Amino acid sequence: PNPGRGVGAVLNRPPLASGSSVATWGASFGGMAIETAPQNSFAAVAESDAIWRQEASQERFDADAEASSLHSLLHGSSAAAVAAACAETSSSVRYDAARAAWPAAATADRQQLGGAIRQVVDALDAPHLKPSGIEKRLLGGTHAACLGLITLLNQMSALSPPTSGDTA
After folding, report:
1. CB–CB of 121/56 below 8 Å?
2. DSSP assignment, residue 24?
3. Which branch of life, at top level (predicted)?
4. Range of the domain at 101
5. How confident is the model at residue 56 (pLDDT cuts 50, 70, 90)?
6. Does residue 42 belong to any structural domain of this protein?
């Protein structure tokens, strides 16, 4: 054994060579082989992001569909998933404040709502803030997508503030 030599001491293996990782040889505990997943490098993440952005930029923005998804998230069939996700991420108070900041979301027609969504997505170069994508991620179990909804609503309020006649 290599007492005091880190992972090698525990596993009765020589220390790893400089620049290598556990993923190169894995580990064995009680006869079970355990392998760790390799980490993404910054270059790999940037490449994946560039591909995703390219694909997202080719999609046509459908204002009516985005408005429909936002309505579903706020008032429709996906509202319960939003509430659960916000509770799971300790974001319920932020979500309630974001909804209150832009009450026009409840009364705007689909074209107005779609236009406000597009304004945010374009201004922030943020296709991940399209309600259709947020809804898909939330319903797929990605609770953090509620944070995107909060950002969208806050930015809609900042870029298109409600008028004094708007009501919740």
Report:
1. no
2. G
3. Eukaryota
4. 62-159
5. confident
6. no
In a domain, 126, yes or no: yes
Whether 147 contacts 91, CB under 8 Å: yes
Residue linked to tokens 């490449």:
47
Q: How far apart are CA 145 and CA 128, in angstroms?
A: 9
Whose tokens are 């300790």? That residue is 90
Gap between the Cα atoms of 124 and 64, Å rounded: 20
Is residue 128 assigned to a domain?
yes
Give the other-Cβ count within 10 Å of 110's Cβ: 15
Q: Which residues lie across from 28 on neighbouring strands?
A: 33
Residue 81 in contact with residue 138, Cβ under 8 Å? yes
Which tens digit of pLDDT belongs to each residue from 20-51? 444 444 555 555 566 666 677 888 888 888 88
Residue 2 forms part of a structural domain? no
Q: How many domains does the chain have?
A: 1
Say if CB 22 and CB 7 are below 8 A apart.
yes
What does the DSSP 8-state code read for residue 34? E
Q: What one-letter code names the amino acid at 95?
A: Y
Alpha helices in the chain (DSSP H): 7-11, 42-58, 63-75, 79-88, 92-101, 104-107, 110-123, 131-139, 145-159
Q: Is there a contact between 160 and 121 (Cβ–Cβ < 8 Å)?
A: no
